[in-house]
Specification:
The chain has 14 helices and 15 strands. A hairpin with a 2-residue loop joins strand 11 and strand 12. The protein is globular. The structure holds 4'-deoxy-4'-aminopyridoxal-5'-phosphate. 4'-deoxy-4'-aminopyridoxal-5'-phosphate binds next to helix 5. 4'-deoxy-4'-aminopyridoxal-5'-phosphate (PMP) binds next to helix 5.
Length: 451
Amino acid sequence: QLELETKDLVQKDKDHLWHAMYRYNEKASPTIATRGEGAWFFDTNGDKYMDGVSGLWCLNLGHGRKEIADAAYEQMVNLSYFPLTMSHVPAIELSAKISELLQGSYTTFFSNSGSEANETAFKIARQYHIQNGNPGKFKFISRYRAYHGSTLGAMSATAQANRRMKYDPAAPGFLHVPPPYSYRSPFGEDVPDSDRVAAELIDQVINWEGADSVAGVIMEPFISGGGVIIPSKEYLRRVAEICKKHDVLLIIDEVVSGFGRTGKMFGFMHSEGVQPDIVTMAKGLTSGYLPLGATAVSSKIYAKFKENGTHNHLRHISTYGGHPASCAVALKNIEIIENERIVDRVAELSESILSELYDLIALDKVGEVRGVGFLYGIELVEDKKSKAPASEELMGSIIAACKKKGLIIGRNGDTVPGYNNVLIIAPPLSSTEDDLRFVVETVKTVLSDLC
Ligand code: PMP
């Protein structure tokens, strides 16, 4: 009976469900999840998997937190929907909480997703400069390899090869600079401080373009989907200085890194003294339980809108943005993160358990292991000397072998042609110590076999 039902589901899936980047089962049958438990999920075959990438790095507290489900339920029966053209309590409380967590004075516009949070940031940045008497400042700078979302503006800031090749022309006004990627420095092997050079290049690009034409710089504190790139702490500090000098807004995309993923509440907090002008959030904001995006702007920006009496006229609206149930879920999620000291736990367990992944560097085909908090990338190469990227075949067989052993891991996708060679490990922040050991042991076993 179960087999028949599964067969029927597989057929319907094949005929009717359009998957996003159907990466794990291109040829085989899809994995159809039916139930989750903590960091694990079960499929229609009754097989059990540890989710080593937290869904799409969003399911930070794992499956089945009843308190979160209850918060959604209670909110839905109390006030089922309400628009933010007026106001409601969970959105007010959440905006104040976000400001407190960002350790500054921030005002938040809510949307539905990370892409939309970034679109909102671009619109606010451009309007800010108009309000400020600089209507010519409209360009945005982002980094190659970065992913900022799938809507047209966010995708234009995204500088990953395949996405761009499929959808160009991008929106005008989006410029790209090399990332602080010391393992493959675009400035040459013999430049010892390539992160510094990468930061200075932003200064130069702003000068070349004309500071009077640049609205903002958008970056993740740590490039996640683009291959887990972890710059020195000084890099972001220097970028912040450069932005300030040119009156260019620093937009930090915390969609992946926010809410504890890197062992700090926000990724930018690893670089002391950096206070972004705009912070965008999604994923970990609700731990994936309901959709919600947030664009928090510093008081400097919001004051400009208020001063000119235009804060009510952003000309940007989202029907479901700041949905009461999503805000209630986000508040409960944050309460759990705080009560259970999730952020400190991530820092501690990263150090004591996940850091064992660094041992893999001893293998012939492991070029570099990079990690921060519960975000690790293992860059695979044909050989350490040439650094030629590992083949698609090897990448695919590693992911398949892990899955066979009950572990789902990810990889960077479509980043640079031929360079989709970074395995990504980002387990739920609530994973038990045993779960984390299972991740490390499985990856070690599989890589020792195949690399
Ligand atoms: N920014 C980053 C850094 C992301 O990783 C993502 C999603 N992977 C987004 C933005 C877009 O978020 P969403 O899919 O919710 O639109």
